[in-house]
Amino acid sequence: MAKTENGRPSVDMGSIRTLNSSHMEDESSLGSDSEINGFTSERQADRYGFIGGAQQYSEDAQDVPPEVLRQREVKWLDMLSHWDKWMIKRFNKVRLRCQKGIPPALRGRAWLYLSGGKVKREQNQGKFQELDSQPGDPKWLDVIEKDLHRQFPFHEMFVSRGGHGQQDLFRVLKAYTLYKPDEGYCQAQAPIAAVLLMHMPAEDAFWGLVQICEKYLPGYYSPGLEAIQLDGEILFALLRRVSPVAFRHLEKHKIDPILYMTEWFMCAFSRTLPWASVLRVWDMFLCDGVKIIFRVGLVLLKCTLGTREKLKNCQGLYETMELLRAIDPRYMQEGFLVREILEVPVTARDVDKEHHTQIKRWKKNRGELNFKPAPRMHGARIIMQAEPPRRQDLQQNPTIVLEVPEPPQKLNKGKEERKSKKKRSIKKPTAIEEIPNPYPLLTGPPPQSLNPPPPSLNPLPPSSATPPPFLDLPSPSLAPPPPPSDPPSPPPYATVTLETSPETETNSNHQQSAPPTDLPAAKESALQQSTQSLSSSEQDTYL
């Protein structure tokens, strides 16, 4: 008897693996080698490379006018040439252009840049060639060989056994098993790698697969499929907000999310949607992360089970699963699907919040998780910020995406050098030795000492408060004096006003040499010479 959990019967993951494998076997039986060879001789490949439009080709696919397509190509070429600047400063514009659709001629290069595969490749130069040259684990090689002809058997790259497409697919998957020996190989990785190989060489496809498995969908392909079960519970919890009718129906019939969303999420809808819609979904998925995968799943559930009229014929689990396996093509058309995806109110923060809630519930009901995946990166910008290139990569590859700005001290190195040179060029002022004036003017009250005070040097009467002209400048209101006819001769003695204490002044008088005996007469002569250029009124004022 099946165990029940959260009101729903638990699902055996071994049966899920068997169900998915048998489903792939049924699809591959539609295109044996003889049928495919006869099919290729009668029909040609469409613009996506599928023979006869076998990958659910939508007749309503949006055709972009050639002139608009050329303009978009020019814009994308400019972004790819200055990728780090656009990602750091104008990421919203990059997101908008991904939502409009990447030009087909540049889609492979843009996917490699968005996923961080370009940086990963340049950080591990020669790693893919090293893995490719190794024989590999026979346990995984046999499984990979059996899955090669099941991946898009009607695409021109994988149409024939032993063709270059299947050979490259084998190389990429084998290299991944050697790169991640603890994880090994999962069947759902094959369509992911095949989609990448349709747009880029084998080495680039390998690093793109590494980034998707490690950064976008961590833990999806590990044994036990615990990560995909957690995301199934997250999808079911988010459905309550987006479409309560569909949520109540699935809850009523106890339909576990793992029954209908495993192939959607693990293959990133590459085996579910028409090819034009697959490409548009991947453009947004590699830009904004796994929240796009959740939004696509919510749109399909809402459009299929979101109204009571649509649920009239769904009276149980079997009818509901049949309806979800044969979704109306109208809901998967490129234009309709993209518009609905952009309107779903689910953000990366909502996904992370619900992720923590489901982990707590899992540990409470089932115990600890067996897998320890790396933190999930929500889109190209987060991946770019989390993986800065090494310094030797920047030196060897100047065009590498710069993810972290250099420290300010290195950016301002030239400025600091200029400042240091300027400091060195400025000469330090030499110390000025202060020499005491041998003839200081006496100010203030006479010192209280036994020595008699020296004779006053001021020729003016004590009642006059106006300083002599050689001690103070005339008032700014007075007109400037006319230039003298002959330059006045310098005064016989330099006068310096010093503030000294009485004791210092007394000691200096004892140490200094005696002043000239005719000092009052000399001062009177200097006063007369300095006032020769003044007017009579000014002379009266000062004298």
UniProtKB/TrEMBL annotation:
Pfam families: RabGAP-TBC
Biased composition (Polar residues): 497-515
Domain Rab-GAP TBC: 101-289
Domain of life (superkingdom): Eukaryota
One of the record's GO cellular component terms: plasma membrane
Record region (Disordered): 1-37, 386-543
Composition bias type Low complexity, residue spans: 524-543
Name of the protein in question: TBC1 domain family member 10A
